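Worked example 3 (structure in, sequence out).
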């Protein structure tokens, strides 16, 4: 016992004499982000498993399984097409209204699923967060993966409808569609990562997000033409509306699969607007990751 006590005292003395060194103290903003990306890459197999788990859990014990990912958007399209397009007369002022509305719904659904799923991702995986070490960013990133899966299914339906109705043509305008997807992925991922961290500390965030996403859908030119909205706005507000990245993504996606045969005129400098928005989105993504990195240290205690 005396020997053990002496060894313990000697060990305590050595620890007291050792200079304190914080693990993250020397990490700069750039090196911290780089190390986080490397850590996520090392756990890419786990990220893949989380995406598969989320997709399987969504349709667990369902007879139709992934067929529901087809039924829901088609039902939504039918309701909007009949109620808004036919009963309220929106289809009379917009050619090929079915393709127009489904293009907007497809790209906006990608945004809303990533943001909503990312916001609740840390809470939904609280058991893993409290017990296992892993880069916590993979939880909101798993929401991106599952949303992309649903997006691909809806995109196939959209392209088939566009081909059958003759609105899909080949040309440089298809780059607007690529730009729209990039915009949505950048901004939705940035918001999903940021809100997932804030939601751990303030649980009302996920409910606020649901309301904002609903308002944002009606505030985007999905059920109406963008020109219908801007004509009722002062010029400065119209520019704010048109430079909203979600609005730009919706318009860009519609330009790719609907506009070439409709005679629609896009906003001025649409490509430049999307490019500037993408640059701002990358900065937002970087900032969101750094904020997440700062807040994640107390996740286990808060959960």
């Amino acid at each position: 016992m005396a020997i053990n006590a002496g060894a313990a005292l000697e060990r305590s003395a050595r620890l007291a004499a050792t200079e304190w060194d914080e693990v993250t103290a020397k990490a700069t903003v750039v090196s911290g982000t780089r190390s986080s990306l490397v850590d996520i890459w090392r756990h890419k197999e786990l990220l893949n498993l989380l995406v598969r788990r989320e997709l399987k859990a969504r349709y667990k014990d369902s007879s139709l399984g992934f067929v529901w990912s087809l039924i829901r958007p088609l039902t939504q399209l039918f309701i909007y097409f009949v109620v808004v397009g036919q009963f309220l007369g929106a289809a009379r002022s917009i050619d090929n209204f079915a393709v127009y509305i489904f293009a907007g719904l497809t790209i906006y659904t990608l945004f809303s699923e990533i943001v909503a799923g990312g916001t609740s991702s840390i809470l939904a995986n609280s058991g893993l967060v409290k017990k296992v070490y892993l880069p916590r960013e993979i939880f909101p990133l798993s929401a991106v993966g599952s949303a992309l899966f649903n997006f691909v299914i809806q995109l196939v339906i959209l392209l088939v409808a566009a081909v059958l109705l003759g609105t899909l043509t080949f040309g440089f305008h298809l780059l607007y569609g690529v730009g729209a997807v990039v915009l949505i992925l950048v901004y939705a991922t940035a918001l999903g990562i940021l809100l997932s961290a804030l939601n751990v500390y303030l649980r009302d965030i996920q409910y606020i997000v649901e309301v904002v996403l609903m308002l944002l859908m009606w505030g985007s030119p999905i059920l109406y033409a963008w020109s219908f909205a801007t004509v009722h706005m002062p010029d400065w507000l119209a520019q704010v509306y048109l430079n909203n990245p979600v609005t730009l993504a919706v318009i860009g996606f519609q330009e790719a699969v609907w506009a070439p045969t409709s005679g629609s005129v896009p906003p001025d400098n649409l490509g430049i607007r999307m490019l500037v928005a993408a640059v701002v989105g990358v900065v937002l993504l970087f900032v969101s990751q750094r904020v997440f990195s700062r807040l994640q240290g107390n996740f286990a205690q808060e959960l």
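Notes: The first helix runs from residue 2 to 17. Confidence is low (pLDDT under 50) at residues 20-26.
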